[in-house]
Specification:
This protein is an alpha+beta fold. The chain folds into three domains: 176 residues, FAD/NAD(P)-binding domain; 116 residues, no CATH class; 119 residues, no CATH class. The protein is built from 15 helices and 22 strands. Helix 1 packs parallel to helix 9, helix 3 packs antiparallel against helix 4 and helix 4 crosses helix 8. The longest helix is centred in the last third of the chain and has 22 residues. It starts with a strand and ends in an 8-residue tail after the last helix.
Length: 495
């Protein structure tokens, strides 16, 4: 009789774990609190428009360990069109000037040299450091299963990357930019203001364009919901089951072994293994009552910052809004109401490049800005509705500033707040992507197991500072590698 794996959460990490469980002969049951699979990797429909919440780029669309995992789990297949954009971002400064960030390292640096020729030497140094970072390659095997030979075999290919990690691993982004000694005021101002966080990692910045330059960070047409639907299809075709509207309240532990879960309605479901793809904080401190803590986990939740919660305004526009720059970051502070404000910048995304997001001749536009969870968590309904209306009115003003004459074409205006994120995903403090990457945790990773607790594994973006879909999907694969190792059976990655 096949052993049973119970998976809490039907996001991409849970779906991945379920797919690999079925590929390796386990019975698999996913319990999902929402009515659809995908978790944070999702979208929703309003009057024919699809409003996407997650994927803007996906590391692993061309090659490498992530790519193979995506093929296994149906994140991508031969029918999925991958778009490799020419531009990463257009950054608009408060004075109206801008800086365009190309997706190709060489093109971007050539552009910077043209605009700031006095800084050519420093820009070429930046180019060199970014090219070193192109060697970054994820491992296919879970950390406990890696041999010293796996690491040694990589050395000839990643020695420049290791030198970058050694030189810049402990530096913040601002320290790194300072060290380059830019003279041009426009260049220095644009780079310094692009990342307002004082702890943002220099390495994280250097890594960003390395994936794009290799054409390995494309956008799958269909976006987040397309990814979730394909994974769900793959899982169910393999015989896996998802039970929606199933809210877990507790992981059942007997003799320090996870043996099942208890739902909100008191229902108990037993299994041989339990995998939590749910929110990390909820899993450790609510489902398990904080009884199984390592020092690394305790340190992470006490000292690492989660990504700030966001407000997302999704606009359905009855016009075709063309743009060279699908992603723009508009720097500067703005006051929306006495309570709500844009403190550093807002991001405006034009989805005209993806035909699945809007009816023919129309455009989906999304505006996002950070908004502290504590601002929203205790709002009464009257205040909450009032602030959402303020945001809707202000969103029309922002659209008019960026696309003059088109605020009157808005057919739909949908506002999702940090409380929306919590309600549908359970994300701790409304964080959409787990722990924020900093100079202190850029090379860190939390274990998928907890000390003293047997037959239990965690998957998802809370294990990896920086989060994101690729490591989340990959972590589901790793969990099954560890379970198969324990069961003494070889791992299967395909039928």
């Amino acid at each position: 009789m096949a052993k049973k794996i119970l998976i809490i959460g039907g996001g991409v990490a849970g779906l991945s774990a379920g797919i690999y469980a079925r590929l390796n002969g386990f019975d698999a049951l996913i319990l999902e609190k929402h009515t659809i699979a995908g978790g944070v990797c999702t979208a929703w429909y309003r009057k024919g428009y699809r409003f996407d919440y997650s994927i803007q780029w996906l590391v692993g669309t061309r090659e490498g360990a992530f790519h193979q995992t995506f093929k296994d789990t149906n994140v991508i297949n031969d029918d999925v069109k991958i778009l490799n954009a020419d531009y990463h971002t257009r950054v608009v400064l408060p004075d109206g000037d801008d800086m365009v960030v190309y997706t190709d390292i060489d093109k971007w640096c050539d552009y910077l040299i043209k605009r700031a020729p006095e800084d050519e030497r420093s820009i070429k140094k930046l180019r060199r450091h970014m090219h070193w970072s192109k060697q970054l390659t994820p491992f296919d095997a879970a950390p406990p299963l890696r041999s010293i030979w796996m690491y040694l075999s990589l050395l000839p290919r990643v020695y420049k990357l290791l030198w970058a990690v050694f030189r810049f691993g402990g530096k913040t982004y601002k320290e790194y930019i300072d060290s380059l000694g830019f003279k041009n005021e426009w260049l220095r101002n644009a780079l310094m203001r692009n990342y307002a966080d004082d702890k943002f990692s220099a390495l994280a910045f250097l890594f960003i364009l390395s994936w794009y330059t290799r054409k390995n960070a494309g956008y799958p047409i269909g976006g987040s919901l397309g990814v979730a639907e394909r994974m769900h299809q793959r899982y169910t075709e393999l015989g896996g089951e998802v039970r929606f509207k199933s809210n877990v309240s507790e992981i059942i532990v007997e003799n320090d072994k996870a043996v099942g879960v208890r739902l909100d309605d008191g229902t108990e479901i037993r299994a041989d293994y339990v995998i939590s793809a749910a929110d990390g904080y909820t899993t450790i401190f609510d489902f398990l009552k904080g009884k199984y803590l390592s020092e690394e986990v305790k340190h992470a939740y006490e000292h690492w910052e989660p990504y700030p919660a966001i407000v997302q305004i999704s606009l359905g526009v009855n016009a075709k809004l063309e743009t060279q720059y699908p992603v723009q970051v508009i720097l500067g502070e703005r006051k929306i109401s006495d309570r709500v404000s844009i403190r550093h910048n807002y991001r405006i995304l034009n989805y005209s490049f993806d035909h699945t997001m809007a009816p023919e001749g129309k455009t989906c536009v999304v505006i996002r800005f950070e908004s502290p969870y504590d601002l929203w968590k205790d709002m009464d309904k009257e205040t909450y509705d009032f602030e959402k209306e303020n945001i809707k009115r202000y969103a029309l003003q922002l659209l008019e500033e960026n696309y003059p004459g088109h605020s009157a074409d808005v057919e739909v205006c949908d506002v999702a707040t940090p409380l929306t994120t919590v309600r549908y995903t359970g994300a701790w403090r409304g964080s959409y992507e787990g722990f924020k990457v900093s100079n202190r945790n850029i090379t860190a990773q939390l274990s998928q197991t907890l000390p003293g607790l047997d037959n239990f594994y965690m998957v998802g973006h809370w294990l990896f500072p920086g989060g994101g879909v690729p490591p989340s999907v990959h972590s589901g694969k790793w969990a099954l590698q560890l379970i198969c190792k324990k069961e003494g059976k070889p791992v299967r990655f395909s039928l």
